[in-house]
Amino acid sequence: MAGPLLPVGAPRPQSVLFACTMNEVRSPMAEGIAKHFFGREIYFASAGVRSGGESNGFVTAAMDEIGIDLGKHNPHSFEDLEDASFDLIITLSPEAHHRALEFTRTLAVNVIYWPTIDPTVVQGSREQMLTAYRNVRDSLENRILEAFEQRPMGAV
């Protein structure tokens, strides 16, 4: 992956928004993983450019495998956010990155793009499709652990 996982030299954020296109797959997975590992130290949320529909069974299955329950997740859009005061927005799709830059143009918020494949485009057997979701989950988990684990809060 090109570019840093977090802004170079920036302190560990205290509030992070993960954003993707529909807030159905990538950003809820990232939010769930981040809360699982760092939820007592950092506030995490997720949103999409548009609100998605029903929960995705492949997301639920992939996350259940690592002990994270996303069954109660309801998709949100940027417009649904009650508070825009995030230290960092991590975008997971090009469309979300553009929306986040518009959303933050008058705010002092870092926006970083983590290119993340959309597993909903994978076709094949159920197992092939579930493997695509597992790959996204594992990639997000690795990036989240690398980005947040080694950075004490307030460290430069």
Keywords:
Rossmann fold; four-stranded parallel beta sheet; 156 residues; alpha/beta
Please, could you describe this protein's structure?
The chain is of the alpha/beta class and 156 residues long. It has a single domain, classed as 3-Layer(aba) Sandwich (Rossmann fold). Helix content is 35%, strand content 13%. The chain has a 4-stranded parallel β-sheet, with helices on both faces. Helix 1 links the parallel strand 1 (15-20) and strand 2 (43-48). Helix 1 (26-38) packs across helix 4 (126-149) and helix 2 (57-64) packs across helix 4 (126-149).
Category from helices, strands and their pairing: alpha/beta
CA gyration radius, whole angstroms: 15 Å
Summarize the helix and strand pattern as letters.
EHEHEHEH
CATH architecture term: 3-Layer(aba) Sandwich
Which CATH class applies here?
Alpha Beta
CATH topology: Rossmann fold
| Strand segment count | 4
Largest sheet: 4 strands, parallel
- The outline comes out as globular
The neighbouring-strand order within the major sheet is 2-1-3-4
| Secondary structure tally, helices | 4
Share of β-strand residues: 5-15%
Domains (count): 1
Set down the secondary structure blueprint:
Blueprint: E1 15-20, H1 26-38, E2 43-48, H2 57-64, E3 88-91, H3 94-103, E4 110-113, H4 126-149
Write a compact overview of the structure shown.
The protein is α/β, with parallel strands linked by helices. 35% of the residues lie in helices and 13% in strands.
